[in-house]
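User: Round two. Same drill as before: sequence, then structure, for each protein.

Assistant: Same drill it is. First protein:
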Amino acid sequence: GVELHDPTAGGGPIATFPEGFRAGGPHLRTDMLTFGGRSFLLRYAPLPGNPALTERTIPVPLVLATGIAVSILLGALLWLLAQVSTLYQRVGRMARTAPLTGVLNRRVWDQELPRELARAARTGQPLCVALIDMDRFKAFNDQHGHQAGDRLLKAAGAVWWSNLRKTDLLVRYGGEEFAVLLPECTLADAMVIAERLRTAVPEGTCSIGVAEWARGETADELLGRADQALYAAKAGGRDRCCASPSPPASRRRILEGSTGPSGLEAR
């Protein structure tokens, strides 16, 4: 609110806004106004119930200290978020990785195999699996010690992984046995890859059983045929790759006319 005073006339204000306003209180301010060659006095103050309009100066050191404190707090928060993100990624890798060999674990295999089978059913692309077993691994452990056996499994996993395509999947299936998933790969191509893996073993030998998925076949049936091929490689003298024969023609007709890999009709 404002009071307008004429110092030459004395007395009360000659005008107020709002009407009847009287300036006072701790936030009262005055100013001089010149108009038409005459000087007038202005008295103004906040209206009752309104916040005070005052000029306040914050000391520069306080501003700097506040800015530094906020910067440190934001920096610490960003660092904490980065640590949480790194920890989350590490836990995710641990959940998918076999700790000894560094390759993927059985859980990943159980998740990815049904997905790849469903995709092969949709696209009509071939798909193969291979089971790898180190030959006479128990005898190797007895002769060289379990630590040497662990080092061999880790080295074998690393060299096999480097000999696979980016789309392939290598997991530690259990003990000294590994499994390989080969999407968009025919049986002939899978046998070439299997031979490459067999000859890449850093020490000792291995046997490999390979099977190509037949439309409508379940994951268990496919793995069962690959396991039979692995046993055939072992029985044939070890250090070799064996392919599982395709299901008989009558069996293939039943599979092709039944359900997809997950027990649901393939789209």
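Second protein:
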Amino acid sequence: MAEGQPQNLTTGRALRVIRELATKSENILIVEHGQKRSRQRNISAVQIQQCCLKGTIEEGPFLNSHGNWQVSLFRHAAGQKVTCVVAIDWPSKLIIVTVYSGR
């Protein structure tokens, strides 16, 4: 993925990019706020990665205030519901803004 950030981003393309980047955990950066919320809500880094790999987009994509494409991903597995707010630092990183349980 050497291309620059697109001006328009479809849901399908956003999901493909997120899933491709999420295959390697080193491509996932959980910012301080996301780390704090994941600890408070007992959501592990593995659950966050699985949400990125197998979740569905509930909101977005839209450009956030930092100029990155952002989505909300939802995953329900093993009785637990996890939502991750993910910004794409094009073309190589996923930034986990926050996470929460339920829906």
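The longest strand covers residues 80-89.

User: Perfect.
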